[in-house]
Design goal:
Elements lengths: L2 E5 L2 E4 L4 E8 L7 E8 L6 E6 L6 E3 L7 E6 L4 E6 L8 E9 L13 E2 L3 E6 L1
Parallel strand pairs: 2-11
Antiparallel strand pairs: 1-3, 3-8, 4-5, 4-9, 5-6, 7-8, 9-10, 9-11
Amino acid sequence: QVQLVESGGGLVQAGGSLRLSCAASGRTAFSSYALGWFRQAPGKERAIVGAINWSGGETYYADSVKGRFTISRDNAKDLVYLQMNRLKPEDTAVYYCAARFGGTFYYTKGTEYKFWGRGTQVTVSS
């Protein structure tokens, strides 16, 4: 079992940056989990933002954020990050951290994850 808590959201102007953090806790080793960041805007379905495998050696990004966002993890500290640069108003959403036990690869579908944080709001003003 793992519990996830996001932090770092807030209000930022277009072109600015934010770094989201997700802290994991529980008795299961953090390195046993593949991780992902998802986001959900009002009236829209939850969508993948980025994903990372157990070691951090393989990553995936949605086309809409590729080149602007970076996902990383620190297994020694039980943390996963989402660095968001050159933010746009269309990035406004609630951002969620998700974890999946086991697996060799990264995963890009919400249905592939079992554990979720409660989300953190990111608002980008124009």
